[in-house]
Amino acid sequence: MAEAGTQSTIPMRRRGPGWRLSALVGRTGDLFAGGERALAPILDLVIRLWLAQAFWLEGMYLALNFETAVDLSTHVYPVAWMGPVTAATLGIVIELVGSVLLVLGLATRFGALALLVLALINFAVYQQLAVTLFQAVLLGWYVCAGPGPVSLDRLLGRGIAATALPLTASVQALFRRMDAYGTPVYQLFLRLWIAGAFWLAGRPVLEPGRTADLLPGLEWACLALLVAGLLTRLATLPLLAMTLWVQFATMQAGVPFYAGLILLLILLRGPCLYSLDQVVGAWLKRRWPRVTDLSPAQLAGLPHVVIVGAGFGGVTAAKALCRTPCRITLIDRRNYHLFQPLLYQVATASLSPADIAQPIRSLFRDQNNVRVMMGRVTDVDTEAKEVVVGEEDRVSYDVLVLATGARHSYFGKDDWEPYAPGLKKIDDATDIRRRILLAFEQAETAEDPNEQAALLTFVVVGGGPTGVELAGAIAELARNGMEKEFRTIDPASARVLLIQSAPRLLPPFPEALSAEAKRSLTGLGVTVMTDSRVDDVDEGGVTIGGERIAARTVFWAAGVAASPAARWVQGEKNRAGQLKVDAHLSVPGRDGVFAIGDTALSEAWDGKPVPGLAPAAKQQGGYVARAIGRRLAGRKPPRAFRYRHRGSLATIGRKAAVCDFGRIRLKGAPAWWLWGAVHILFLVGARNRISVALEWFWAYLTFRRSIRLITGERG
């Protein structure tokens, strides 16, 4: 598996205005592409819902006033080849059924086509309203392009294509051809349509009473760029701003509103194949290729960056290197990236492991310079610049980033680990969940009152954020959600003890918030024991200050130790095993080796050690990516890394949390809501965010936890 650590051997024109223009175009394109992925599905749903309600209201009005509908079909817009009653009935059915199909995103193209025909007939025969024509243009978009991701068509499309329904394969093939050929043509039509609307009508599209010769120069320039498809998205912005200004002034869903929807569609979907943007972009890619444009053979000649650990720091560094001319190998012993701050909720049956974890490969499916490797790093040969994976495999590097995180620390009492597991990975969380739920099950069948009491006693060692959150969650689980499910025991009688050796809980927080956390825990029924040191832990319980406490379930949240990274590179370390780094997060005396996250000891927090928090690891990952980019370009390193503390948060239970943002401190329900919002936003992937939000909402309303499964071997 040996790989040569080589420098770039391909002609990457990295100097001169041409390369800078190509880089600027690429970055702008990436920015708009990100906006399209995030906002286009929302816009698609909004347009469908708006069109649906317009036709639904009209259809319902005619259905409730059927005589009026028949009269219109007879005298106003008669259909020569259809009777008035039939024509009125058919029109109402099309409006009502087509509206429902648009809302659901089911058979969207067919529903949009029926409504499009109806709208064109109304415009040609009944009333020549500009709004109707704009509606027809938007319906034509759905006929050509179909619905976005938030639709039943996208959800069921693959399954329907594989069924034995007649004509399914032919229809799917037709839709694929429309996607490939029809959609680009319609995108060109949308550009020409909206430009023509501004050009022919002048400002009446936006502001009645103005004529075409009063179009200001900015509008003229934007319309010309829009027609040519040059700087398409940027040209759309001023037109959209003008349209929105008039829309907010009129506050009516008329032509400006529909024009704004079309402009938003152009802005998010961008230029089509038939545009100067595509021609210029293709030329720039050929002349000054970016990393994302390189073939595997070209990538093989780039400098090799090896990142060990796919935690917050490692993933951030790899993503930030997406435009740097280098190839990246990301090594982790597991195949998933874990959101550790919510791991305790998996341990207490609030969330599923899949809610807080994401496959690493899925995070980098669109980043072609990243190779993901599942394996366990056992050593680093800094002389040969090789990472040892497993027993014999070696991976050469030009630059190495150690982001290996931390593990439990029992302060020399490692024999306690079987009886007091810690919480650092999914396996730990599911094991703790099994122990908690199994304790209630065993207590239900225990005949000895003392054994039953020991089974219903839960001890959490450590009063930091993890310990506080775990103790509060166990207490809530016991008191809410399992009532009436047991016949011999009352789960609410469970005893939860939180042991802290320091004088107060949450030492990094202000003393007032620590006191608030203690009050909230006590209100949940947790017994908080500060200034208490654990003397021993065994199968039967714990000994604290000479006092024996019988407890069958003990959890460890008292300390962590860094990974063996310092031993691998023979670097200086502190008592916790953290590898000391310099102001640029590089390991002194080890060329091309960086360390970040819990692995590193950096005094970049105004002279204090950087805390082991997710935001800190992400800041370090982004900084190291910039440093690597400068190193590979032969430039000086960036200014010394400085950690910027954004605040500390900890939750205790329902509507109970504490937040410290320096001058701003929150507690109670406001802090709890903020804690939830921040953690949902920090999750990776829209699916995880939605799943966690729904799970929390359900648990909040019902007091029920749906992930109460006992898995694994019975201990």
What is the strand and helix layout of this fold?
Elements: H1 17-64, H2 66-76, H3 84-104, H4 108-126, H5 130-145, H6 152-161, H7 168-201, H8 217-228, H9 232-250, H10 255-269, H11 276-287, H12 296-299, E1 304-308, H13 312-320, E2 327-332, E3 336-338, H14 343-347, E4 357-359, H15 360-363, E5 370-374, E6 377-381, E7 386-389, E8 393-396, E9 399-402, E10 406-408, H16 426-445, H17 449-455, E11 457-461, H18 465-479, E12 495-499, H19 511-523, E13 526-529, E14 534-538, E15 541-544, E16 547-550, E17 553-556, E18 560-562, H20 565-569, E19 579-580, E20 593-595, E21 600-601, H21 614-632, E22 648-653, E23 656-661, E24 664-667, H22 668-682, H23 686-702
Parallel strand pairs: 1-2, 1-9, 2-5, 9-20, 11-12, 11-17, 12-13, 19-21
Antiparallel strand pairs: 3-4, 6-7, 7-8, 10-18, 14-15, 15-16, 22-23, 23-24
Helix pairs in contact: 1-2, 1-3, 1-10, 1-11, 2-3, 3-4, 4-5, 5-7, 5-10, 7-8, 7-10, 8-9, 9-10, 13-21, 16-17
Provide an overview of this structure:
It is a single chain. By secondary structure, this protein is an alpha/beta fold. The chain has four domains: 12-155, no CATH class; 174-289, no CATH class; 296-333 and 375-408 and 562-632, FAD/NAD(P)-binding domain; 414-558 and 654-702, FAD/NAD(P)-binding domain, CATH 3.50.50.100. Helix content is 49%, strand content 14%. The chain is built from 23 helices and 24 strands. The strands form eight sheets. It has a five-stranded parallel sheet with strand order 5-2-1-9-20, covered by helices on one side. It has a four-stranded parallel sheet with strand order 13-12-11-17. A three-stranded antiparallel sheet has the order 6-7-8. Helix 18 (465-479) links the parallel strand 11 and strand 12. It is globular and about 100 Å long. The protein starts with 16 loop residues before the first helix and ends in a 13-residue tail after the last helix.
